Amino acid sequence: MTAEVINLRKFKRDKARDTQARQAEVNRAAFGRTKAQRILEKTRALQDKSKLDAHLRDDTNTPSDPA
User: Fold this and answer.
1) CA distance 64 to 52
2) What is the DSSP letter of 3?
3) CB-based contacts of 33: which residues, under 8 Å, 6+ apart?
4) Contacts from 58-67 at CB under 8 Å and sequence distance 24+?
5) Chain segment 27-65, per-residue pLDDT in tens
6) What predicted TM-score, i.e. pTM, was given to this entire model?
7) Three-state SS for 5?
8) Which helix (H) or strand (E) holds 13?
9) CB contact burial 22-57 (16+ within 10 A = b; e otherwise)
10) 60 phi and psi angles, rounded to 5 deg
């Protein structure tokens, strides 16, 4: 009954590589958008803001004290 010999340096490198690979996968899911997708999102946000601003009431011309 002999135990399997493990190279600790190799074990640490493999563990670090696996950790980095998992983190890279998370980052790709969170930040992985193409340039076209970013531009489209930005354009839609600007359009939404301009539509919302177009519907704002302008109360600056009404008197504040009707008395």
Assistant:
1) 25
2) P
3) 41
4) none
5) 988 888 888 998 999 999 999 999 999 988 877 776 666
6) 0.45
7) coil
8) helix 8-31
9) eeeeeeeeeeeeeeeeeeeeeeeeeeeeeeeeeeee
10) -75, -25
